[in-house]
Amino acid sequence: MEQVLGSEWKITPAGGATGNSFFATRDGQELFLKRNSSPFLAVLSAEGIVPKLIWTKRMENGDVITAQHRLVGRELKPSDMKSSNVAELLQKIHHSKELLNMLKRLGKQPLTPNKILDEIQQAVAFEKIKQPEIIQAVELLETQLPDVQCKDQVVCHCDVNHNNWLLTDTNQLFLIDWDGAMIADPAIDIGILLYWYIEEADWKDWLSSYGLELNDQLLKRIYWYVLLQAITSYLLYYAKNNVQEMHNWIEHINVIMSKMNKN
Known about the structure:
Elements: H1 2-5, E1 10-13, E2 21-26, E3 29-35, H2 40-46, E4 53-58, E5 64-69, E6 73-75, H3 84-94, H4 97-105, H5 113-126, H6 132-143, E7 154-156, E8 165-168, E9 173-175, E10 182-184, H7 187-197, H8 203-210, H9 216-239, H10 243-262
Antiparallel strand pairs: 1-2, 2-3, 3-5, 4-5, 6-8, 7-10, 8-9
Keywords: Membrane, Transmembrane, Transmembrane helix
Pfam family, one: APH
Organism: Metabacillus niabensis
């Protein structure tokens, strides 16, 4: 990174799983740098969904470095997630034709419920998982598959936890960390956000801010994707042999299935 900015800049890792993100500071200036970010970043910046992209530089080795302003602000707290500005920004993302067209140009194919379920079934079979709750959960997903088909195919962030929302000191809201973005049913994002952050009694009001009416079909899609995410989390910790987290997710799965069977 020093060869991009010069030795007068102080470069420090910004964390993250890939190790490709950095902070750069000099004389009060602060930048957020990323190596080999997707061209998708430029569209996200133009749409005002992530902090403004300042420049992009291609290195001799083929790496592409992007720079954005490092903004003063904070991550959202779990209690902030029920606010209408979160619903409005997510609605803007899901309805952006520019974002959708860019992901399509990058070769992303729509992720249908059938394709997702097939991947889960293959993973459970490959790992030879016999846990009764997991088998039951996968069977429930399959049973409800005809009820969760959706014509809406939008850009989904797929990791809308509160740590990925940035609120600046000037009250600008951004959704960052787009590495897992997909084209899919918007219920993937909506469901995870509602289930983990908002009381079910308040779902109708939150969805009203988003621009949707809560009905039986949407409710089924929400719980279907919440259960899917819970199974995926269980599989993640199964692969790590983390028995405590596996147990925690089994408890979550039981609660989710109970709610699905009531609706």
